[in-house]
């Protein structure tokens, strides 16, 4: 602890250079925190998937529909407990930026298949009995200031009404659902499939995909194979996956987020390695007379090595913590997009470890030179 003032003084010997280096590391770890945070959010979405649910899609693509008649056939297969279905509605509220994750469903099937969604019985009954009724997540309702009884217009980017050729759909909020285990899931909206199917101008009598709850999670693979086998060689063949596999394939349609983030961060830290390394070497080169004096006063070779390494470590770790702290402050802004409120602790720990690795990589060469410093030659120079 007694060497902290000395290390701090040596570190700020050139204030402008140190400040610029600190800023460059801070920005790099701000980027690291945001990108890795987003990556972790996608991974958490996948890991939260239910182990006893299967998703049945069209074998060609998720954008291809499946016949509504498949539901009773799937229910009759061994190992199946219950079946629900969803379809992609793709609407926005007032402005295209205000995307809403809305799905036409059959309430008596959808909510038993998703017991994590908690809805009061009277509100669920209201949805079943209200043609244009909708149940929205508590977080989504809070975001737009919606409340039960409100009439909301949504513009679908896909579905057109048969009656007037209009893509504007009106709904009445009859209930709010909550997910106490994961508040980030309170961002969706569910409305009556019958209202949707009767009103749309095309693809009537079809659904987007089926949600299959299996009786025994250990038999999920066998049930999935049986479903696909049952519809083999039919006009609409199926592809059945676990909910986790479905989430992974859905994310890959956006892109390999993990690979993209890895490439970006590799490029950033590769450039940072040279920038910080040259700065530390230049700083140690300028400190040669001071280091020689310290050796004259009795500092050992090992202590000299540690002194220079600690300088590099202090600079990198402090800047990294500032960058990660700023990322943590900015991360709640992504809640509307990712449903994530705080930067995962694992990302912060990973960032600190990365900063320590960066410090050692950039400081080991100048620290080794400081260790091997010859007093007479150093003072002469």
UniProtKB/TrEMBL annotation:
Residues 23-229 form the MacB-like periplasmic core domain. It comes from Trinickia dinghuensis. This is ABC transporter permease. The keyword Glycosyltransferase does not apply. The lineage of its organism: Bacteria, Pseudomonadati, Pseudomonadota, Betaproteobacteria, Burkholderiales. It is a multi-pass membrane protein. Residues 265-373 form the ABC3 transporter permease C-terminal domain. It is found in: Cell membrane. The keyword Cell membrane applies. One of its GO terms (cellular component) is plasma membrane. Pfam families: FtsX, MacB_PCD. It comes from the Bacteria.
